[in-house]
Amino acid sequence: MPRFAAVAVLLASLGSARGEAAAAVALTAASFFDAVGDGASAPVFIGVFSPQCLHCIAMMPQWRRLGELVTTLPAADRFTLATVNASTDPELIKRLDIHGFPTLLLVRDGRLFHFEGERRAPIMLQWAVEGHRVPGTRHQPLPRRPDALDPLLELPEEMAQLILLALQNNRLAAAALAIMCALVGAALVVLCSGERVQFITVACPADVKPGGSFGIEFTESRTVFGLGPGKRRRLQVVAPRGIVPGQEFFVPLVAPPEVRRSGAPPRPPPPAPPAAAAAEGAPRPSTSPARAARAASPHGRKNKKRA
Prior knowledge:
The structure is a single chain. By secondary structure, the chain is of the alpha+beta class. The protein starts with a helix and ends with a helix. Helix content is 39%, strand content 18%. The protein has helices spanning 2-19, 32-36, 54-58, 60-70, 90-95, 121-129, 150-169, 171-191, 274-281, 289-296, 298-306; strands at residues 25-27, 44-49, 80-85, 103-108, 111-115, 139-141, 199-203, 213-220, 231-238, 248-252. The protein has 3 domains: 16-141, Glutaredoxin; 150-190; 199-252, no CATH class.
């Protein structure tokens, strides 16, 4: 009896261990990048399935078994199980560049590793722990997080399809559409062109001493696509203190921004010009302008004679 009791306890413990499986996290396009982060945290083993895929349905028992085996791993080797429903997240499938189902991916060290072995739980477990490091394993960088400007990146492809459709029906309309796209592209290039050069370096001539000035001439190459001659500029440069002949120094081409400490009191008003100050300090005339005007008038002169 004691032997049968021990066997029963062992079977019960194995059954309870098999019942405890790591729950797979359901990922969507909205939660995928928050769950995997930049790929540098805990590894994530992702199964991409489709409800209509018979191969996906056939491997579900092995996927559940994999969840049970993950709980038996040491803490340092454990990974997170996750699933993606291909039928509800086509944009995520496109971003991950997936073309077939089921697809098994391991996110680790900022990369996506593709599992291409036999879909059995022990094999998948061994591959996720260390087998993915074998040279020759197919992998790719982790896609970047979606951005608000992504629709603009898809615009050229859609415009090409629109031009191709117009070309099949009306060549004149296709040509006009292509010219319009070219003009819009050129305008965007002009608007998004690089910023102006902030400074240049100049070597001090041998015949110029510190504090002395000399002229320089250079060409600014700020033209669209680098075509056409740039703008010629002439500057008068002052050699800084301590400069030696042949030594290079920076020459700013734009006015530096005004920098003020945050929370500093406003600057006092500038002093009055010397002319204004002299006018304020001058003695006042003995006769006001109004009295002088009355004295200069004819009636004023007559009254003065009578007096």
